[in-house]
Design goal:
Layout (H helix, E strand, L loop, with lengths): L17 E5 L4 H11 L3 E6 L14 E2 L2 E2 H5 L4 E5 L5 H12 L3 E4 L4 H6 L4 H7 L4 E6 L14 H7 L20 H24 L4 E5 H6 L3 H10 L16 E5 L5 E5 L3 H10 L15 H6 L1 H12 L4 H10 L4 E3 L3 H5 L2 H5 L3 E6 L3 E6 L23 H7 L4 H9 L4
Parallel strand pairs: 1-2, 1-6, 2-5, 6-7, 7-8
Antiparallel strand pairs: 3-4, 9-10, 10-11, 12-13
Length: 407
């Protein structure tokens, strides 16, 4: 691999760490990409001929490359390997022997055991190995072994139950929040395991499940039930515990978000509305708890006032008063927002098929060992020969494997 100096004279945070990624779709590839951003050498093992299933997810495609795949596979090298064959399995075990981290997303423990790539076997054979399994439900419990999908995790973890407006059906969050959360938690767990290995000289097994990580999204609402047996209500865009914290419409029909999260905010908000003698003196709105209790009445009054001026006029006043507020932007507006551009959150890496592959930057801004964006999402099997040569195989052995369709 190329040198991974970050420009500060320090190596990348995960330089020297090799990750063998045996995953597809989103959660596993996202986890591996985050580690690759931190400088890990990520080897993505893919099926010959097809590869990661997301290579075919689309449209949109750009010159035959799936935009979905481009999203989560930068900073990786691709090797194609059919490890359902004896020779392919031998190749895989050789690659595992040189890895610090193995990342899998096969929900069938029996399938892994059949190939001797299950956590118990590999962790016993390679004591320093960190083995991370990403599945729908983990490897124990009554739902273990079931396939996991983001849409199912969102539904079963209770997150859907309070989405949408009162009296309507619940709504799935349109971004794969269960998959992305699982990828982030898996990367966090792997980094913690690497730190623990520095102290104990031993690796360990991480069992990370979509269902478990999606449950964490219940956060304060889950706490309300666990500690006060209070279930969340369907409130649309409103906050269950803070008022006003909602969407309003300006006189021009444009929407704005207003989030008055403290009494200090409220004390500055009322004068902006020129409502000191009305809302400011109304005892029903004197505290946040009372505003929550009288949510409907207050929001109606606020909409009446906010509907008298254009949304941008209100946003400027609210920004000047340091009250959290903002417009509802489209994806195009968000990705071209001056803040987005100033923070450098769009990554561009030259790609042999699409020209420039663009993706969202790693949001962890390490100042001494920042994230690196070295490699574009790989073509299928692009690095097979180099990876197998690095593992000790001769060109003749690699050529024979190609003839036998092992790679």
């Amino acid at each position: 691999m190329a040198s991974q100096d970050d420009g500060h004279g320090l190596p990348a945070a995960c330089q020297g760490i090799r990750v063998l990624e045996l995953t597809e779709a989103l959660a596993g590839p996202y986890c591996a990409m985050l580690l690759g951003d931190f400088g890990a050498d990520v080897i993505k093992v893919e099926r010959p001929g097809a590869g990661d299933q997301t290579r075919s997810w689309g449209p949109p495609f750009v010159n035959g490359e799936s935009c979905y795949f481009l999203m989560t596979n930068r900073n990786k090298r691709s090797v194609t390997l059919n490890y359902d064959t004896p020779k392919g399995l031998e190749f895989l075990h050789r690659l595992i022997a040189g890895a610090d981290v193995v990342l899998v997303n096969n929900p069938s423990l029996a399938s892994l055991q059949k190939r001797a790539i299950d956590p118990a076997t590999l962790c016993a054979r390679h004591p320093r190995l960190i083995y991370c399994a990403i599945t729908g439900y983990g490897y124990d419990g009554p739902k273990a072994g079931r396939p996991g999908y983001d849409i199912v995790a969102q539904a079963e973890a209770g997150v859907w139950s309070f989405t949408g407006e009162e009296g309507t059906n619940p709504v799935r969050y349109p971004v794969a929040i269960a998959d992305i959360s699982t990828g982030i938690y898996a990367a966090l767990g792997i980094l913690a395991a690497l730190l623990a290995r520095e102290r104990s000289v031993r690796g360990q097994f991480l069992d990370v499940a979509l269902f478990d990580t999606q449950l964490t999204w219940l956060a304060n609402l889950g706490s309300n039930y666990l500690n006060a047996q209070q279930l969340p209500q369907r409130l649309g865009n409103a906050h269950p515990s803070i008022v006003p914290y909602d969407v309003f419409k300006g006189s021009d029909g444009k929407l704005l978000i207003v989030a008055v999260g403290s009494e200090a905010h409220w004390s500055r908000f009322v004068p902006i509305l020129e409502a000191e003698q009305t809302l400011g003196k109304n005892p029903r709105f004197a505290t946040n708890a009372l505003r929550v209790q009288h949510r409907g009445e207050l929001n109606s009054l606020l909409q009446e006032i906010l509907g008298q001026r254009p949304a941008q006029a209100w946003l400027e006043k609210l920004a000047a008063a340091k009250i959290p507020a903002g417009p509802i932007q489209t994806v195009a507006e968000a990705l071209t927002d001056p803040q987005t551009l100033a923070r450098g959150t769009i990554v561009e890496i030259e790609h042999p098929a699409v020209g420039w592959a663009r993706s969202l930057a790693n949001p962890c801004r390490l100042h001494s060992t920042p994230a690196l964006y070295q490699f574009p999402p790989p073509l299928l099997g692009e690095h097979t020969t180099a990876i197998l040569e690095d593992a000790g195989y001769t060109r003749e052995e690699i050529a024979a494997a190609k003839r036998d369709r092992v790679i």
